[in-house]
Write a structure and sequence with these properties.
Largest sheet: 7 strands, parallel
Number of helices: 15
Helix content: 25-40%
Shape: globular
Number of strands: 23
């Protein structure tokens, strides 16, 4: 394996593939000090205030004079907000659609409304934190022994959260929470849903039913603790309602469904310098393969495309789609400013230890998860994703909150790249995890589904790994357990994004 990776001829930094001592020769320069693996080396003198380039893009500016061979990182790099001039629909590279006779299929659950699930859960969804204990106790009542009689049911899951009251009854925060509840209530991976509230909360279940036209029936029930007359009776009634749903849910069976019915959340967390070089481009290629089948990839985490959004607007199918993305960026700039933060608060300490210096560098790597196909739609947090192809959803960079929005929007699979290592998992849509480097993969094999570190060693390619990831989409969608799913992750990762004042 080479000692370094150069991503573009115009870059004035390269990335060390291993820890390098002082005096190590890299192309035409010698390192001036220890360079940790994954960190950047200056390939020429960079004057104070001059741009630092990686991915053929600006990732920061020299905060002091940097000599050729120096370690380039937080000690000599400063962040500046982006000043992009946006182009729209100037870089459209549609994938070639796969002909019908060659379409790939998976074994999924075809619902009455035409949607397709990859899992078959019964969900207990709360409207407010006050009903969280009731929901958990209802779900926890159904253990392996009872569920063994219903082999087609993947489980009974409680989706509880810490909000739902002490909030305005309209506006961004309220609307986002309602979209999350609607999305989970109608998610194709749920065969049945029980919604549990307290009764006096701001986030009223009845308002949700009215706003979204939800109708109660054998597989969709609601209840409030205050109306039922207390916690104990609510738990008993909830158990009875779920028990009545089990045989109906078990009657659902898998059937052959085209890959076009897959909607995959494209996620990353615990990123490192290799994320944008191995796992993210490989996932991007898998996304392109899925799009060619008529399927959908959903990129998210708006703060983590900051500095790369100009590349995505060029891929927007039209100006209106691109401008929706720019509007999100402007909202986030205002949001962080009025909360006395900075867009560069992300990357995290772990990201920086892994070699990422600024949000601009992190974003350029993160955007690679979206492949190269046109951007067909831009959505609010938890909004239903209607367009096929490569799409984007507004969300924070905090993984549980972001994935919650993507699942609410209809994602029936999640694919999550990580370089530092992550213990994330999700329900009802299972998470597939990709390791960006072999060292972490070998250390955390129980948590990682696929190692993309062999791209770095030349043993594999982005395209080959993309194909491997795409084929795993089909297997997991058909019922194969991912590593995080096998460990039972997903019961505590439901985190609706809380926007606005808590009152």
């Amino acid at each position: 394996m080479q000692k370094h990776v150069r991503l573009d001829a115009v870059d004035n930094v390269v990335t060390a593939t291993q820890a390098l001592p002082a005096g190590c020769e890299i192309e035409t320069v010698q390192t001036t000090g220890l360079i940790p693996s994954g960190h950047k080396i200056a390939m020429s003198d960079i004057a104070k205030g001059a741009p630092i380039r990686k991915y053929a893009q600006i990732i920061g500016y020299a905060s002091t004079d940097i000599a050729a061979g120096d370690h380039v990182h937080t000690q000599n790099t400063e962040f500046r907000p982006t000043e992009a001039n946006y182009d729209f629909a100037t870089d459209l590279r549609p994938v070639t659609p796969v002909k019908d006779q060659n379409k790939d299929h998976f074994m999924g659950y075809r619902r009455a409304n035409g949607s397709v699930g990859t899992r078959n859960y019964i969900a207990v969804v709360t409207s407010v934190n006050c009903s969280a204990t009731a929901a958990r106790r209802i779900a926890d009542s159904f253990g392996p022994e009872e569920l063994a009689a219903y082999p087609n049911v993947d489980g009974v899951v409680a989706f509880v959260h810490g909000t739902g009251c002490g909030m305005a009854g309209d506006g961004d925060g309220f609307e986002a929470l309602q979209r999350v509840m609607w999305g989970y209530a109608r998610h194709p991976n749920h065969a049945g849903v029980l919604m549990v509230g307290l009764g006096c909360e701001m986030n009223q279940i009845d308002w949700l039913l009215e706003a979204y036209g939800l109708k109660q029936g054998p597989l969709f029930q609601t209840m409030n603790i205050q109306s039922v007359a207390g916690l104990r009776k609510t738990i008993e009634m909830g158990i009875s309602k779920v028990r009545a749903m089990l045989p109906l849910a078990n009657a659902q069976e898998r059937s052959s469904c085209p890959a076009s019915e897959l909607t995959v959340a494209l996620q990353c967390g615990g990123s490192d310098a290799w994320s944008g070089i191995t796992a993210n481009p490989a996932l991007g290629h898998a996304c392109d393969l899925l799009v060619a089948q008529g399927g959908t990839g959903v990129l998210a985490e708006t703060p983590e495309i900051y500095g790369a959004e100009h590349l995505l607007t060029r891929r927007a199918i039209n100006t209106a789609t691109g401008e929706r993305l720019v509007d999100l960026i402007k909202w986030w700039e205002d949001y962080t400013a009025r909360n006395k933060g900075s867009m560069d608060n992300n990357p995290s300490p772990g990201n920086k230890k892994g070699g990422l210096t600024t949000i601009l560098e992190k974003s350029l790597g993160a955007a690679a998860k979206g492949g190269t196909s046109p951007l067909t739609g831009v959505y609010k947090y938890a909004e239903p994703v209607r367009a096929r192809g490569f799409t984007f959803m507004d969300s924070p960079g905090y993984d549980p909150a972001s994935v919650t929005g993507q699942i609410a929007g209809g994602c029936n699979l999640v694919c999550f790249t990580t370089g530092r290592g992550s213990a994330f998992g999700s329900k009802p849509a299972p998470t597939i995890k990709l390791a960006t480097n072999s060292t972490m993969y070998n250390r955390m094999q129980e948590d990682m589904d696929i190692n993309t570190g062999d791209i770095l060693t030349g043993e594999s390619t982005v395209e080959a790994k993309g194909r491997e990831i795409y084929e795993m989409f089909l297997r997991v969608a058909s019922g194969e357990s991912s590593k995080s799913e096998a460990q039972g992750l997903g019961d505590y990762e439901f985190v609706p994004w809380q926007i606005g004042a808590v009152m």
